[in-house]
Amino acid sequence: MAKREREKNFDVKIEEKNSVKILNLKGYLDAYTSLEFEEVMKKLVEGGSYKLVVNMKNLSYISSAGFGVFMAFVDEVRKNGGDIKFCCLSEKIDEIFELLGFKHIFNVLNSESEAIKSFEKVRVKNVKRRKK
Amino acid sequence: MSREGRNNKIVIVSDLRNLKIVREFVSREARKFGFDEIETEKIVLVVDEVCTNSIKHSYGNKPTGEITIELKAQKDKFTVIVSYDGLPFDPKKIKVESPVQKYSKTGRIKRGKLGMFIIYQFMDRVKYTRRGNKNIVILTKFLKRDDV
Lengths: 132, 148
What we know:
CATH topology of chain B: Heat Shock Protein 90
Oligomer: heterodimer
Order of helices and strands of chain A: HEEHEHEHHEH
Strand content of chain B: 25-35%
Number of domains of chain A: 1
Shape of chain B: globular
Helix content of chain A: 40-55%
Radius of gyration of chain B: 16 Å
CATH architecture of chain B: 2-Layer Sandwich
Strand order of the largest sheet of chain A: 1-2-3-4-5
Number of domains of chain B: 1
Largest interface: A-B, 28 and 31 residues
């Protein structure tokens, strides 16, 4: 019953584009639903997925517990040459990101394709650096 | 799971699943009072954080307690009073710091205490008190009307 309730309030669908994992979030990410989401993130990062785009187009709400999940993993993915990037924020969630200063810590982009492309830029930079 | 009284009051069982009920209640009343979508979101977020903290820390994640959320509307003042039993909480013992401040000092991103930062950042007044065995959090936000 608890799982069914959580599924109704929050859902995450994962797809892969250009070796980047796209996490499509839907619903409400609060202290209850973030418990399940943390497990999803843990599996991804432990499985070696370090380039992550979080598409928030269908996310209606996020509390500190939801932000906390990203904060818990971002240092590790960056250490491994990846990042957690966000895209397609609703006006409401964009304002919350702004007010909490998350735009200074995280990379927030307007569209999913921009977010994916920004990983390609990093890859090109790294290749150039290696050639030098 | 919850009961709503006539005087804009809701009582929930200390279970994280009930946060949704609290958010819907506060959101509806804040909008009715005149707050726009963004200001309403801030109030909802703060009340969610206070309730989450009480469930996690004062009730130790056990659904054995109750949390009362009472709303008072007075002129331009919108007050939310959250009260609960359980372990006492002293906010002075918590260092409230913005995630950006923490990041610029350490170069690392660490979670924790973000809820407290949100509570103080998004309300005009925050007061934690204890009356008898009850923790009481009084959250106030003023409505800035165009004609004022």
